[in-house]
Amino acid sequence: MSNNLRDISMFVSVVRAGGFRDAARSGELSASTLSGAVRRLETQLGVRLLHRTTRSVTPTEAGLLLMTRLGPALDEIETALGVVEVFREHLSGTLRLNVPVSAARLVLPKILPGFMKKFPDIRVEIDAEDNIVDVLSLRNDAGIRHDDKLDQDMIAVPIGPRFQRNATAASQEYLDRYGRLSHPRDIEKHACILNRFANGALASPWEFERDGEVICVTPKNRLTVRAGGATDLAVNAALEGVGIIHLFEDWLEPYFENGRLEPVLADWWKPFSGLYLYYSGRRFVPPPLRAFIDYIKSSE
Fold first, then answer.
1. pTM
2. Distances (CA, A) of 105 to 109, 110, 145, 264
3. Number of domains comprising the chain
4. Is 218 within 8 Å of 205 (Cβ atoms)?
5. Of 39, 58, 83, which closes a domain?
6. Domain co-membership, 123 together with 51
7. Mean pLDDT, to the nearest integer, of 55-60?
8. How many angstroms separate the first and last alpha carbons of the chain?
9. Quick one: which of 28, 135, 150, 211 has the fewest CB in 10 Å?
């Protein structure tokens, strides 16, 4: 019975959204999961419920009749469940997250303290690393990554600033000695501080963009550090005049404010998408994770 209710709920979501993709965007399940639920329901009932084309999804006559009866009933169930919302303040359990070091430093400090104050009985475990890992195989409830590193069957929830920029910077001492830059190609003449990813690849070339023009530059790596754990070492080297660094703007912002680093080619800094909290759409969402997701959404 519980599986039937789940499939019925997903069918209603698809009809209301007008398609599998739109339902997936507005909900917390992947399009493939929604499609599978509707197919199971159609098989069980022995009738087609949806007309599917490449451009649209519309209910059949049987689907429309079912929707007319089920929609109000599911709304009533949702209302009834809302009555017990007050008890969510007393949730307990453990929330396990796998996150990049940048998220642990720049995003979570603005979110996690408030969440933990609101839910004092929830324990939180953070595994901060820059490896691309299977969060589920490591017994994590969810992970945080950029959208280009997410699997298609994962549900993604925006977390933190929606746009970031890679900033380029150097100390005043370095720029006074070796000259200031006026164009991205000038970087090829300078000593640079690079990150190396866990898979061994260098964070290179550096990309710059202005007025639709994109320029990629391969810097000379005077110093190379492992991305994540040794990033503070790279920043310190830039502060001491070793070379030019290319890193998240938010990471370097405190040093811009106190004057220890000087922005380089600021009008060429390229923006990119912010981070997402992601988790499996095929697994039960544990209450601590559900509370964290709702807290993120309410904090936007």
1. 0.64
2. 7, 9, 14, 23
3. 2
4. yes
5. 83
6. no
7. 83
8. 36
9. 211
Parent domain of 49: 2-83
Instruction: Write down the residue that tokens 């400090």 correspond to.
Output: 109
Q: Is the pLDDT of residue 41 over 70?
A: yes
> Both 138 and 254 in a single domain?
yes
- Give residue 7's identity as a one-letter amino acid code: D
Sign of the alpha-carbon torsion through 44, 46, 49, 51: positive
Q: Are residues 136 and 273 in the same domain?
A: yes
Burial class (CB in 10 A: 0-12, 13-18, 19+), 137: exposed
Which of 83, 118, 146 lies at the terminal end of a domain, its last residue? 83
Whole-angstrom CA distances from 176 to 96, 163, 173, 220 are 47, 32, 5, 19
Structure tokens at 86: 């007050």
- Each residue of 65-108: pLDDT tens digit? 988 888 888 777 766 665 555 555 578 888 999 898 888 888 99
Asked if residue 36 has pLDDT above 50, the reply is yes
Residue found by looking up tokens 């969510």 in the block: 88
